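Help!! Second protein's tokens look totally different from the first
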Amino acid sequence: MSILHTIVVANADELAAAKHTVPANELLREIAELPPAPGFTETLRAKRPAVIAELKSASPSKGVIREPLDCATLARELESAGAAALSVLTEPHYFHGSLENLRVVRANCSLPLLRKEFIVDEYQILQARAAGASAVLLIAALLDDALLNDLTEVAHAIGLEVLLEAHTEEELDRALATQADAIGVNARDLHTFQTSLEVVKSLIRRIPQNRTPVAESALHTREDLLALQDAGAVGFLMGEVLMRAAHPSEKLRELLIK
């Protein structure tokens, strides 16, 4: 079983319990009262370079990265430092995240927020919107074409955008065939955990600019960022390099300085 499916199985009980505790109809009532979410892709296209700063405590490949994770302070400081958007890990077992982290971030900044989660069910999309997200991550390696399209439709129906992640040419072709708003290329192979920015460069070049190409993972320096911008990336999802820094906002300013 791949790590993707291991994570989904590990969270199955929590997902079932959440559906019982807060039914989908209740989430939909909450969503109906919310103002429009800040535009995710619109903001990325308006800011160059557009860094999506990721708040995460841990990962399966790297272990603990930053604990405790002061989401309120990080949200305020990263917004002030020039982040275009924030990505919030909500998976609890392998990334030590939570939906509460997303709510806290929403309460402390005005940026568009991406719910970074292993989404397999439309209920998770409703949760994201209710907790303050502007966009959700869908992973091509985890979902078949029918589910990719269905979940994208659900997201759009409640005012969310979709960042659809690919890692191979085949996954990219599938992503481009959907109505996803942004197309991400993950440098990390989620089966082997090996990373390659050359893979990202190659695939990013195939994504039309109106689909908002996003480079994900293994970005550590301003040179990495600029090289991928030259290849056509509009957004840059950066997590570990920021979360390992003593002062993430200062590190972000270093990466953005012209």
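Here's the second one for comparison:
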Amino acid sequence: MAPPPLALHLDEGEGGLDVIDRQVIQLFALVAEALAGATHALLAGDRDAARELAASDEAIDRLYRDVEATATRRAEALGSAAEMHYLVAVLRMLPEIERSGDLAEHVASRAVRGLGVELSHRSRGMIEQMGEIACSMWRRTADAYADRDADAAAHLEELDDDLDELHVLLTAEIASGSMPIPIAIEAALVARFYERLGDHAVNLARRIAALAVRSA
């Protein structure tokens, strides 16, 4: 879906604000796709898919650097107040999007190692739920940016509460000694990756809400 117009002119052409906007939407989509793919690879034990996903993080990093450089150049040109607000908002969002891509890659790397088949039944079920919630949150955040949806943050905070609760339950399951220590450590890391992905989604949704209100 094409983003609604901002309260500024999104000029076309190389380095234009409309180009930056489309690239940010693409970054959100890449992270959401990487997260969904990494979760599937982990639970399905698909090591080949996991290897491909781990490598795809490079594409996110390249696009992140391109958008950051373009937005920085535009900001240094000292445009209108509305343009500067938009560019600053984008530059503040970019690091969280890039870090989230790294977290999805970390999940994929555990799938490469075959962690999914080593988990206890209860741990596997809770990680599956955490993955589903985190994927849903990232898709919702991507839509929120594209639509300039100021109301998405409240819904995402509710989902993040569910994710945090599962994190607590999974931590208790890991502490019960139901898995060998090396597997338990990896499971705890994966749970932490999903928990952080949820936090980033909420933080970004709040920034999007501020951008939407300012652009209205």
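Reply: Different proteins will give different token patterns, so don't panic. The CA atoms of residues 54 and 105 lie 5 Å apart.
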